[in-house]
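In response to reviewer comment 3 from the previous cycle, which asked for concrete evidence that the modeling workflow produces usable outputs, we include below a single protein chain processed end to end. The sequence was submitted unchanged, and the resulting structure tokens are shown without manual editing.
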Amino acid sequence: MTFIVVEECLHLIAQRQGLILTASTVQYLYAVKACSVAWLLYLLRAHYTELRFKDLLQLKVSAAAAAIGIVTFLVWIGLPATLPFIPPPKGYDPTLFTGESTRSLMIAVRVAGAVFVVPVMEELFWRSFLLRYLVAPDFQSVPLGRFTWGSFVISSVLFGLEHHLFLAGMLAGALFNLVLYRTRSLAQCVLAHSVANLALACWVLQTGDWRLW
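The workflow returned the following structure tokens.
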């Protein structure tokens, strides 16, 4: 949220001719965001007691979670419905970076952020915190994977509204919720999310459809 404010402030200053803001300048901000979030996740890692990556050693369960990730990716590219009255995002376009090495580095940062940072951050918020907070404000008293229709529907809708492709986002939120309900494992949710983001990254780099990034 802080970086969203920073980005909007930069655009506002640029509109008032107080700053020269090129198309690639804002995209450099992604690297700062990804590194900052990764650093904070690392510093606070001791608090994420429910995030047990050893759960991924259950190979059949992990394979199923990865399959859900692929399904989520297919939903993402197959349901182009967007939020009405809101202009589509420009996306992350690495072709705006000059120089082959810079472009390759920024692509690597974008993929790493999408595959390793975003899934951990978002699953901690959506599945570990919000899904349980909607059941009871004292969310830590709610067992991980506790199902109620209200928390399921509300969190899925909010997850969709966070994304411009809101319909695909709602279905993605519902699928990730189902992974948690079936496995009771936050790590499996992270895996499904990571696989979906990796598949989307490969699709975007292959097709050049930067708006999906």
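The first helix runs from residue 2 to 15. We consider this sufficient to address the reviewer's concern, and the full set will be provided in the supplementary archive.
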